């Protein structure tokens, strides 16, 4: 009886004034849609993790899913007379909790791997499943999140090109990236810490240690430098969450800022070079964003990444903004191997008309010889979202994103540049355990994504089309000056139009049962031409996914 009274009291004290959501979850994407309409304010400017994605939705606001349980914050205890001083005003006094899930995800691929932004889960050919869930405890500035992922992949065989670096399952063109084509020859289980971390915050100052993968910038499907496409990596970060800025003395509001510095440890997959000495890499990163008050809805951002070997002396790159290199690629004044990347982002919301437009521009390394061709290694993204009103309570949105990650044209006069995520100095590239931690599709080619999504009171359904060529650079590299076949007719015959291209036609159904059980089904038919980079070659794959999620 005492236990029943205790549980009942917790439920009665539950508060749903704010909610913290996992990246790309159903709930986060719905809140993002509400922000497009101006119903809720976005909690971040460009650096997003589960802990930072705190949505404050006013219960008085009308919205499509207002009768559904989108997650509850439980109040275990709050002081009757909270302290009021300079320190305690910066922390949330009391003890609170939120339960995530559980969520059970299942998918099946008939002919080849298919999946993106799914963490450590490898959605290979055959049956795949993942179980996620956890709890978040918060009190007096401390935040403890435990939300791991356990997954299984049947990992059936399919045709792919032979690897060229260490293992037949490794990448199939150059050796300077740890991008696995197939994770071995057998079914396997994976445990990943997922969104688990410990954090302490005071006002907007925050520091944490854990495995939450940051989503960097405004992209919907293919961010350049941060996503949840790969297995999580352990990191320590410190910085400021979204914070209003006022001029001193005059107290004039000039906009919001957000910034984070972090260092992470990236691990190699077991299908790379069999050299234990280089299994670990160091990622040193800075992300900063500014939303000026004089341009309502606009945010400008900068992300800077350094990849080095894991060594104590390389912590110096944590506070280094840039290292110039000579034309031959060696670093000026360091004599060390490192790989640097950056991206500049722009994101502009127009909630009065339900419209958002965004862009991202990226560069890989910098050298003195590039003033004559500033687009050297440049890649870019363009996208927009638009609310389309419907009758009654229904709402809809159109999302379009274009990514161009192909090599710049000056490489036709130099050498076979693999792409933005690879580098000869850091052989494993920008990966975690064999998957890219940036864009999951079109990573060395291009991608075009279109989705039309309709929300209704008990769920949603979406139609999507995705065309992506993952590695056009492998074809372009056949014609650079030091590798081109002198027999032009042979070059034309072997490589002209032999680009691997995937056409995904998908439909997604979400139904919310009894306001707390989310049932999601997804069907994708993929037609792939030239999967083996040769004429008269194609592949058909049918993908089906079923997800069950219980909201407490």
Mean pLDDT across all residues, rounded?
89
3D shape: globular
How much of the sequence lies in strands comes to 35-45%
Using only C-alpha atoms, the radius of gyration works out to 24 Å
Q: Total helix count?
A: 4
Query: What kind of sheet is the major sheet?
Result: 18 strands, antiparallel, barrel
Q: Low-confidence stretches at least 5 residues in length (pLDDT < 50)?
A: 1-17, 326-335
Count the E strands: 27
How widely separated are the two ends? 22 Å
Description:
The protein contains four helices and 27 strands. By secondary structure, the protein is mainly β. A hairpin with a 4-residue loop joins strand 17 and strand 18. The relative contact order is 0.12. The model is unreliable at 1-17 and 326-335 (pLDDT under 50).
Brief rundown of the structure:
With 552 residues, this protein is mostly beta strands. It contains four helices and 27 strands.
Which labels suit this protein?
6% helix; 552 residues; disordered N terminus; mainly beta; single chain
Detail the topology: elements first, then pairings.
Layout: H1 2-12, E1 18-20, H2 26-36, E2 47-48, E3 54-56, E4 74-77, E5 95-109, E6 126-139, E7 142-146, E8 149-153, E9 188-192, E10 197-202, E11 205-210, E12 215-216, E13 234-246, E14 253-267, E15 280-292, E16 298-309, E17 338-350, E18 355-364, E19 379-389, E20 395-404, E21 431-432, E22 435-436, E23 446-456, E24 459-469, H3 473-476, H4 488-495, E25 501-513, E26 517-529, E27 538-550
Antiparallel strand pairs: 1-3, 2-12, 4-5, 5-6, 5-27, 6-7, 6-8, 7-10, 8-9, 10-11, 11-13, 13-14, 14-15, 15-16, 16-17, 17-18, 18-19, 19-20, 20-23, 21-22, 23-24, 24-25, 25-26, 26-27
